[in-house]
UniProtKB/TrEMBL annotation:
Segments forming domain Amidohydrolase-related: 128-263
Gene: pucH
Cellular component GO terms held in the UniProt record: cytoplasm
Region named Disordered: 1-36
Organism of this sequence: Bifidobacterium adolescentis (strain ATCC 15703 / DSM 20083 / NCTC 11814 / E194a)
GO molecular function per UniProt: allantoinase activity
Polar residues bias (residue ranges): 1-13
UniProt name for this protein: Allantoinase
Gene Ontology biological process: purine nucleobase catabolic process
Amino acid sequence: MAKTDYPTQSTSHIGRIRHRRNGAKPAKWATNAATKSPTVANTVEPASRPAECEANAVRKIVRLVARTGCRTHILHVSSGLSVDVLRRAKAEGLPVSAETCPHYLTLDCDHIPDNATAFKCCPPIRDLHEQDALWAGLADGTLDGVVTDHSPASADMKAGTLATAWGGVSSLQVGFRAVLTGAMRRGLSLTDVVRWMSCNTARLVGLDDRGDITPVLRADLAIIRPYERFVVDATALESRNPICACDGMTLNGVVTRTFVAGRDALSGVREGNLIVRP
């Protein structure tokens, strides 16, 4: 980690959320590798931030958790090596939880066009071997959930090369469907995806009034046709900036209606403004 701010005594009632970083060298490697060629290859980004660096950062956090007892959540896991560290930590009974993101589960660096800055994020998108390990971590409960890590950016911010463009993937509108598609290809179900992206995530952040379809809970609902497919068109998404790493992908899951606290989410909404309060 770039720094640590853990208490030195057991404080299990205090939570810490940590984004794994392991010093400044990976960023330097990214710059050096990128400037060697006028076209930045899709393999530069993952090579500049090796999976072992991520796993080392997670190991450091796990050691601190073992020493302090502080409940800790690890963000944006992208590597099977990190999953292995977390699996052992959970087996030891340490109060650790962790998440991954749709882009790490559904995209791989070997099929990203060179200089395609829509795919730039940190940690970087890795290869299919790492992707398989992430799915295994979800299936056995090592990873607790999947979150979008939605990072919208203007076209200007995403311009340039992988070395200079803003890092982040815009996926809020399609992330659930991308994960659903990947899960169904692997023999997993809609129920699994809902557990990872709704039930578990609500529980982790203490939203006890939502996250599941149960009497007395808040009715935040989406009516979805899981086997109906559609092609992602970035220009047709509701995001202000039409940049999406899933552009052109065929995904499962057509949403027909959405309810927020029991109310139709689009009822009475002004054009161009999808934000409503229950």
